[in-house]
């Protein structure tokens, strides 16, 4: 908002940092997953390990998901127009939902199915050393991507005064959340696969390897359902937490033309993009015709805040109590 130049400048910098950080995080994850997917596929062909096949499917689905997330970033950043007055931010949630469903179908369902079919199958080629080497290299690459995602989560969480885990589960940035949890599940999946292959080597029973594939699939399923659910909630118009509502209310009340606010509705229409409806009482005592012009100017002024994509103001009834931050 024009009257709070310092706050607007700070929020704009926060938004730019989040946007560029999310793009870098996705690119790092894409490169890491593509390299890992090739290596795991080679190992799976050489050894016939069910757990390694599941891990290869996991990495290929992750790599494909990063492509969808890059599309999500690009589509969601399109400026608003006459047909989309609140912008295209929700396209980010649509494409992120597609990516999450891909993780569920291509990763989870395939891994579980493959593991079940291998429960009574014959042991694959027992080149255990190859599997361990590939899993170790994959762990290093996945950890590199996870460190990048964790760094962005931690920095953004500090900006908003939230615990990193609380921030990443609640953030309106679906690409950051997807990369963070995909990388975390990838690291856990590597541990599961390594343990399953180790149990196979020690006991000579390939059932453990098959169980590893099923375990990786179940892990991916849990993560995918969580990501699908969060994207659906934002597509349905999830509101802000009480703390965030208070923050926006304080910003609005700091405007010199707003005396009080009696009603406030806020919802996300994209990553760090808000749609605001408010009943306000303006300073002064203007005629109705003049008030209409003041409302229009005030709406345009408030929309200068980079967090607020669209705002609709209406006159507050005189008998309604004012909202307090």
Index terms:
Alpha-Beta Plaits; Alpha-lytic protease prodomain-like; disordered N terminus; 3 strands; 325 residues; 69% helix; mainly alpha; 2 domains; 3-stranded mixed sheet
How is this structure best described in words?
Strands 1-2-3 form a three-stranded mixed beta sheet. The longest helix is centred in the first third of the chain and has 43 residues, at 5-47. It is mainly α and 325 residues long. The protein folds into two domains: 2-235, Cation efflux protein transmembrane domain (Alpha-lytic protease prodomain-like); 242-315, Cation efflux protein, cytoplasmic domain (Alpha-Beta Plaits), CATH 3.30.70.1350. Helix 1 packs antiparallel against helix 4, helix 2 (50-76) runs antiparallel to helix 6 (174-203) and helix 4 crosses helix 5 (164-170). Mean pLDDT is 85; it is low at 1-17. It has helices at residues 5-47, 50-76, 90-118, 128-160, 164-170, 174-203, 207-235, 242-253, 288-302, and strands at residues 258-270, 273-282, 308-315.
Mean pLDDT: 85
Helix count, DSSP H or I runs of 4 or more residues: 9
> Residue ranges: pLDDT <50 for 5 or more in a row?
1-17
How does CATH name the architecture of the largest domain?
Answer: Up-down Bundle
The biggest sheet, with number of strands, parallel, antiparallel or mixed sense and barrel status, is: 3 strands, mixed
Instruction: Walk across the major sheet and give the strand order.
Output: 1-2-3
Order of helices and strands: HHHHHHHHEEHE
The oligomeric status of these chains comes to single chain
Question: Which structural class best describes the helix and strand composition?
Answer: mainly alpha
Shape: elongated
């Amino acid at each position: 908002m024009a009257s709070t130049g310092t706050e607007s400048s700070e929020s704009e910098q926060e938004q730019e940092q989040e946007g560029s950080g999310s793009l870098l995080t996705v690119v790092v994850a894409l490169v890491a997953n593509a390299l890992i997917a090739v290596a795991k596929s080679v190992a799976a062909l050489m050894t016939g390990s069910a757990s390694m096949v599941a891990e290869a499917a996991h990495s290929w689905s992750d790599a494909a998901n990063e492509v969808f997330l890059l599309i999500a970033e690009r589509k969601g950043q399109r400026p608003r127009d006459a047909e989309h007055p609140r912008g295209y931010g929700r396209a980010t949630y649509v494409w992120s939902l597609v990516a999450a469903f891909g993780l569920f179908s291509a990763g989870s369902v395939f891994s579980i199915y493959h593991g079940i079919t291998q429960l009574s199958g014959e042991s694959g080629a027992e080149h255990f050393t190859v599997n361990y080497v590939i899993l170790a290299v994959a762990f290093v690459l996945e950890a590199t991507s996870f460190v990048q995602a964790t760094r962005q989560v931690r920095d953004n969480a500090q900006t908003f005064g939230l615990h990193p885990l609380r921030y990443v589960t609640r953030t309106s940035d679906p690409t950051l959340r997807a990369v963070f949890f995909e990388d975390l599940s990838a690291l856990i999946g590597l541990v599961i696969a390594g343990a399953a292959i180790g149990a196979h080597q020690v006991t000579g029973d390939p059932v453990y390897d098959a169980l590893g594939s099923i375990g990786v699939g179940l892990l991916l399923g849990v993560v995918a359902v969580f990501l699908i659910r969060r994207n659906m909630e934002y597509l349905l118009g999830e509101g802000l937490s009480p703390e965030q509502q208070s923050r926006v209310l304080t910003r609005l009340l700091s405007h010199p033309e707003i005396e009080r606010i009696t009603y406030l509705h806020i919802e996300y229409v994209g990553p760090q993009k808000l749609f605001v409806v408010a009943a306000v009482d303006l300073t002064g005592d203007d005629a109705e015709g003049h008030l209409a012009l003041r409302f229009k100017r005030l709406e345009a002024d408030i929309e200068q805040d980079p967090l607020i994509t669209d705002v609709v103001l209406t006159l507050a009834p005189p008998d309604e109590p004012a909202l307090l931050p």
